[in-house]
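The instructor's notes for this session suggest beginning with a concrete chain rather than abstract definitions. Hand out the sequence below and ask the class to guess, before any prediction is shown, which regions might be ordered.
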Amino acid sequence: MPMGDMTVTRPEGPELQALPHPATDDTPPALTRRLRTPRHPRLWFEILLIAVSYWTYSVIRNAVPEQRAKALSNADWVWRVEHQLGIAAEQTINHAVDSVTWLIIGMNYYYATLHFVVTVGVLVWLYRSHPGRYSAARLALFATTGVALLGYYLFPLAPPRLMTGGHFIDTVQVHHTWGSMASGDLKHMSNQYAAMPSMHIGWSLWCGLTLFALTAVPWVRVLAILYPAATLLVIVATANHFWLDAVGGVLCLAVGFTVARTWYGALPHALPQTAWQPARA
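After discussion, reveal the predicted structure:
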């Protein structure tokens, strides 16, 4: 047959059905996509993960060298910077609140307990009510804490109550209230010079933002706003942190949410409420 007369024919009828089909949405996701897809959390794994993570955090935080001279020098520097910025009101607040015994004792217990109780409570609530958002929110919290560990190592900082000549009142020691790992008989179990950044602020703000974004109950949303604000007042009144320590905690939280958004493709509150579950045979 001459070259010009050549024609191309296409298979018709049943032969068309024998051709391979392109991949469809039913194709199993790739490993990376599976890892980034929020899955329904498993209770035993979450309990184990949180316990091991907190233990690791405590070990690393307390293993950071207690560089007393450097920490006190950094505290003096932070105090000078705050005076230059016109925000050095910590000492005034510390003395004013300490003059009201019932109030400062309440703040001491607040500082020692709610930091853990509220954070764990929000995690449990997320696990039960928002399983699709739980993993991303938990990742944001863990990443925030991980960045804080780096801060403790790179910038040892004495809290105001340990400053030499700072005239701050160590409210736990003065009022003999229980609970603070940073004062009294328990002070040797915790690194005294890991004040920057403040995880009381990082964790409380994580709790507040999470609750505010995911609940429609008005009084809960009000408490969500008040909780980090009250925590800020407490950490300053008890002389455990400077204002700038709180700023450090906010920056760590920003990094934590950025990590979660980068991994899951959205902030926790923007993910579906329910979680993907692998199909069972």
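Then share the key points. The longest helix spans residues 101-129. Residues 66-270 form one domain.
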